[in-house]
């Protein structure tokens, strides 16, 4: 015979009070501050997350912690003096920023078609090295954010080699400031081409190994596949560029569609994603690295001889030994350093396919050696503006996957 | 279709509003006579002419001229791969333009940046707040009458008015101590920590005298009084 139990039935008043309590519990949302110093925010991004349990209901990015006023600074110095500031935009790909900026100034001057072929090839090599290095870092930190430490060690070993190459090429590992208006600061050092070839061979092996660690890794796939899928229309509407745009299936690469330098002479493929989720963006970066290595190898094979600077002393500084011995060169040197190159009045916009996306420079010139207004259209800034749209509905732990797959840099976002 | 054809098509739609397209270094610029009509023009450019991507919005301060500000819009189409630049003047008195967030959602942050840096307001913007500077910052730094060196202003209230977490906190190692115990961050007192390294090491001796040798991790119970009572 079953045991008799006393069952308590709450009266109507008590039930109503309980229901109220429950509703309060359901309606209670928590505000979580992520950043500004959080390892997954890759710098100083702060996101104010409004949470319902573990689900994000609202996300408000807060940027500007690294704002240095680069655009204001640019208005107050000559075009050449601004080159070192471009190192500090996307500080993971300084070489590519250098190239993008001088190409913009050269477009304004109208000398972008007169660059010597050797200079153009060297610049392409610089851009692609920067892309490989930036993607290696992006992959490593992405994987580490979602819990795979080994990948980080793998990619950083290889990235170190890129920095060694940068060091022997430019004299600095990070703050390269390599390009000059009308050329580059110095020619390739002896033996550099062989070093770079060796690197190309090694990095491909490393990329393959990295892929075996991640591409079919159950944990990694679970945390990235289907997370934050961005549709083609949204990607275009929010102005995404670079791998984030191509991940959503838009086949657009400025190196193909608006070819600059010698990209139209080189063979490479532009990978695109199909689902537009974090996993696609990861796969895309891996493939982009392989294509960059392909470009690098072609450039090293085709690398022509000859000068690396435009033969115009009004634009490029004359050689030092002549400055010290001849009057005319001394005058050019003096004018060039004190007043800067003489740019015509006018306005141009130049867009460059940077590792992070479209890095654009809009220069409004009233003539003379300084820009009247220089606007930096940075890919990270625009790419991050989609966060309030993609984050709601995801779990808190997905935020690191999303941020890792977006691969942004705050130095460039805040300028 | 070339960029010039596209520009002329747009001009045919708004003949009284748009100027003749000007070419410089292969780029086309059109001046919009009335900034108020921008959403309408851009809507047509996007829907009928395929300019589906708003690359960038910029503002220029023509200090000392009238109208003072110029807005610059860069349009691009993924279908035809052509650029187009639209420019519209905004006077200092009015200092306002309609928002384009209804046409391209990417305009949101660009317009916030212009509001932050140049002080031009965008009517109808869903969330017009400062983006790079902090809320409550009183100036517009990219205006030409703002000096490069900046102007003094009050900092916003911050979470740490005391030393920041890694400056003199209880878990910070002192470099250069003579042994591990004096280097390790066991018995540090943030309130009395000075910046001077020697003073720190001296104080370390006092702490040792008051509390004996540190035996393990964990905070000490009571901070020793400075003047010994």
**CATH architecture classification of the largest domain in chain B:** 2-Layer Sandwich
Instruction: Quote the CATH topology of chain A.
Output: Cytochrome-c3 Hydrogenase, chain B
Number of helices of chain A: 18
CATH architecture of chain A: Orthogonal Bundle
- Average predicted local confidence, pLDDT of chain A: 87
Spatial order of strands in the largest sheet of chain B: 1-2-5-4-3
User: What share of the residues of chain B does DSSP label as strand, in percent?
Assistant: 15-25%
Q: What's the name of the CATH homologous superfamily of the largest domain in chain B?
A: NADH:ubiquinone oxidoreductase Nqo5 subunit
CATH homologous superfamily descriptor of chain A: Cytochrome-c3 Hydrogenase, chain B
Structural class of chain B: alpha/beta
Decide which structural class fits the backbone of chain A.
alpha+beta
Biggest sheet architecture of chain A = 3 strands, antiparallel
CATH-defined topology of the largest domain in chain B: Beta Polymerase, domain 2
Q: What number is the mean pLDDT of chain B?
A: 77
- CATH class value of chain A: Mainly Alpha
As laid out across the biggest beta sheet of chain A, the strand order is 1-2-3
Distance between the termini of chain A: 79 Å
- First-to-last CA distance of chain B: 88 Å
